[in-house]
Amino acid sequence: MTIPSIALVLGDPAGVGPELVAKVLSQEENREKANIAIIADRDELEKGMKIAGLRFPYEEADDIAKVAFKPGVPVLLHHKGSHPAPFEYGVATEQSGVYMLETLKKAVDMTLAGYTSGICFAPLNKQAMHKGGLKYRDELHWFADLTNFKDFACELNVVDGIWASRVTSHIPFKDIVANLSVETVLDCIELLNRTLKQAGIANPKIAVQALNPHGGEGGLFGDEEITIIKPAMEKAREKGIDVYGPFPADTTLKAVQDQKLNGVVSMYHDQFASAIKMLGFERGVTVQGGVPIAIATANHGTAYNIYGQNLASPSAFHNALELTVNMAKNAR
Predict the structure, then answer these.
(1) Which residues contact 2 (CB under 8 A, 6 or more apart)?
(2) Which parts of the chain span the membrane according to its record (predicted)?
(3) Which residues have a Cβ under 8 Å from the Cβ of 306 and sit 6 or more positions away?
(4) pLDDT per residue over 227-281, tens digit each?
(5) Is the pLDDT of residue 10 over 80?
(6) How many CA atoms lie within 13 A of 313 on its CB side?
(7) Is residue 122 helix, strand or coil?
(8) Do 24 and 106 have their domain in common?
(9) Could you tell me the CA-to-CA distances from 123 to 152, 185, 251, 302, 306 in Å, in that order?
(10) pLDDT at 332
(11) Are 144 and 237 contained in the same domain?
(12) Would the CA dihedral through 307, 308, 309, 311 be positive or negative?
């Protein structure tokens, strides 16, 4: 059976990324799921293995086009970075920000060129990335620009098979309603439906959340359910998408579990993300939803406070790699 090729990036070397990569790839069954091209500074990869007290075999190559993968043996594409200064660990710096942007850009270029079918990256730090030159509010919109993707995009969170998407994301709370429309809610429903299918769910069942308390109580507490959310759901049904709701935010998770729904469309960043992270923060995955290549990462940060202590749990990053592989199979 042909397995996909995945570009793997260490994330922020000042955090727990290299340690997580060592812990996940030290397990042979993980290395055998895909042909893995690691884009990293060799010294930082080795440092991660030293911190974790674990090793895995790898070979080195200068050019991904010339790589002949061997089963269970990742290939390292050594990237030293354009800034010659040594890394500072446990803090957000311009140096690590530049390194993250350069390695991620190389991963995107490789995937767009067809050498890899997906990207899995260890945790990033947005502050460091902005210090390093990121001009976008988050990496998702940067990825969209790099892939020339102009349509709706949003981060998706995944825990224990439940997917969470959101119509609005990294904006001030006071701007949420102004950014809601029938079109944007429908865009989010369609994006989640496409992504669930790419992840291998043939007939997705999608919950949609209400915006207002108690779902608006028929307009008493707000009318966005009547004027925006329900019309968007009707349009989705006309397109053959199986949607349920709108559910009040405080009962959505119970509805999802009781009715065995696959994913949730929220109206804003924390509306369902808070519930799903409480469900299993240490297992969660973030997918860069909408962009034309499969990109996933652990649903947590760089954990600067525990750098070098071998305390980082690899569960979320393991799940991110597994999900990237599954999505990459369908992308091919």
Answers:
(1) none
(2) none
(3) 16, 312
(4) 999 999 999 999 999 999 999 999 999 999 999 999 999 999 999 988 988 888 8
(5) yes
(6) 11
(7) coil
(8) yes
(9) 24, 29, 31, 5, 13
(10) 56
(11) no
(12) positive
Structure tokens at 232: 């968007």
Distance CA 54, CA 329 (A): 29
b/e per residue 257-279 (b: at least 16 CB within 10 A): eeeebbbbbbbbbebbbebbbeb
Q: Is residue 73 assigned to a domain? A: yes
The span from the CA of 244 to the CA of 303, in Å, is 37
Same domain, 177 and 274: yes
Average pLDDT of the residues of the chain: 95
> CA 193 → CA 124, 158, 290, distances in Å?
27, 14, 11
Lookup: tokens for 115:
């050498």
Q: What is the pLDDT of residue 277?
A: 86
Which tokens is 140 given?
A: 């998702």
Q: Residue 68: how many CB atoms within 10 A of its CB?
A: 8
Mean per-residue pLDDT for 64-82?
94
pLDDT tens digit sequence for 102-131: 999 999 999 999 999 999 999 999 999 999
| Within-domain flag for 283 | no
Distance between CA atoms of 179 and 23, rounded to whole angstroms? 41
Distance of alpha carbon 193 from alpha carbon 113, whole angstroms: 26
Q: For 70, which DSSP code? A: B
Whole-structure pTM value: 0.92
Residue 286, in any domain of the structure: no
Question: Hey, what's the torsion of the CAs at 320, 293, 139, 205, to 10 degrees?
Answer: -60
